[in-house]
Design brief:
This protein is an alpha/beta fold. The chain has 2 domains: 10-135 and 315-346, Quinone Oxidoreductase, Chain A, domain 1, CATH 3.90.180.10; 142-292, Rossmann fold (3-Layer(aba) Sandwich), CATH 3.40.50.720. The chain is 27% helix and 23% strand. The chain has 10 helices and 15 strands. Strands 1, 2, 3, 6, 7, 14 and 15 form a 7-stranded mixed β-sheet that branches. A 6-stranded parallel β-sheet has the order 10-9-8-11-12-13, with helices on both faces. Helix 10 links the parallel strand 14 (319-323) and strand 15 (342-346). Helix 3 crosses helix 4, helix 3 (136-149) crosses helix 9 (300-309) and helix 6 runs parallel beside helix 7. The mean pLDDT is 88.
């Protein structure tokens, strides 16, 4: 038995692959024994049924799912910032909105994106599968992050974190025209993967593992390296134009600020402790622009899909493990251990 569309614009999907967060039980609100919840927010699926007003999708279509449903009538929604809607119903958001790790999931049609022939019949478009479609959601976060901080052609960008979102931020920054991108992480395995995955002609990509020293000293080393590959740069302006922080770790946040040039820009994309020690004096003295990044907004999901469908950002190499639903705990433990890049869970009944 599957849920019926309550709205003529709803459709029902049978979900095939999902990825989950489970260690902290939520972002702003949290799971409790009194309020258990179905998990999952990164998902792809197959359309199982559609409401009478749905004209762009049909039963059997394979889709990527945008898992947040805004109210559409508040001032944030009307100004185009629906990700900040105070009435947002986001998948696996306790205590009321269940997630996508279920056999069927009801979703508004305009939150569904076909993963075949989405580029208007362009013969050069690639077909991505349901596996890769799961990663459109985190890539939409990366697109939003890069847009928030305003990466432009020629920018030197440093990204802290080489997990899924950090790697996707690096790749999207490259596609926005960054001339230099550096990924910083403690995992040599992830950085080795990044070196191969990010490689392109006429584009400089490098990696760095922080040394066990103060964040400011690590940042000085990064700026010195950048100066060595940019010998014409004014030494007084040494530093990266943009820092994208995708870990949420206090030391990385500090290092990101210290690695920027005067007048540089910083975006906080990763989630960690809600309060950290922050180098506010450096921000003020260097007039650094600070941006937040929360999920994704208007056009981000669509652009993420186009980047994947065009082959500009390859998603399949990021997928290192796929577990059946019956081994969901093993999948979470694999993710917790840091093994590989992205672990997927095959949905119920697939």
């Amino acid at each position: 038995m599957y849920p019926a569309p309550n709205d003529s614009n709803d459709l029902i999907t049978s979900n095939t692959l999902q990825v989950h967060f489970w260690l902290h039980g939520g972002v702003k609100t949290h799971v409790s024994e009194e309020n258990p919840i179905v998990m999952g927010h990164e998902a792809s699926g197959i359309v199982h049924a559609v409401g009478p007003a749905v004209s762009n999708l049909k039963t059997g279509d394979e889709i990527a799912i945008e898992p947040g449903f805004a109210c559409r009538i508040c001032s944030n929604c009307k100004s185009g910032h629906y990700n900040l809607c105070p009435h947002m119903k986001f998948a696996a958001n306790p205590p009321h909105t269940h997630g996508t790790l279920s056999k069927f999931f009801k979703v508004p049609a305009d939150c569904c994106f076909k993963i075949a022939n989405t580029l208007g019949g362009n013969s050069s478009a690639l077909r991505i599968g349901l596996d890769e479609a799961v990663l459109i959601e985190p890539m939409a976060v990366a697109v939003h992050s890069v847009r928030q901080v305003g990466v432009k052609p020629g920018d030197r960008v440093i990204v802290f974190g080489a997990g899924t979102v950090g790697l996707l931020c690096a790749a999207v920054a490259r596609e926005f025209g960054a001339s230099v991108v550096v990924s910083v992480d403690l995992s040599d395995q992830k950085l080795c993967f990044a070196q191969e995955w990010m490689a392109r002609d006429r584009f400089l990509f490098s990696t760095a593992i922080p040394a066990p020293m103060h964040a400011e000293d690590n940042a000085a080393g990064l700026r010195n390296w950048l100066q060595s590959v940019s010998p014409d740069e004014d030494p007084g302006m040494s530093g990266f134009d943009v820092a994208i922080e995708a870990t949420g770790a206090e030391s990385c946040i500090q290092m990101a600020i210290y690695s920027l040039r005067i007048g540089g820009s910083f975006v906080q994309t990763g989630l960690g402790n809600r309060n950290v020690n922050f180098p506010i004096s450096t921000v003020s003295e260097n007039e650094i622009t600070i941006k937040g990044c929360y999920r994704y907004g208007h056009g981000d999901f669509k652009l993420a899909l186009k980047l994947a469908m065009s082959g500009k950002v390859e998603l399949k190499p990021l997928i290192t493990n796929v577990f059946p639903f019956e081994e969901v705990t093993k999948a979470w433990d694999t993710t917790k251990s840091g093994e590989g890049i992205k672990t997927l869970i095959r949905g119920v009944g697939f």
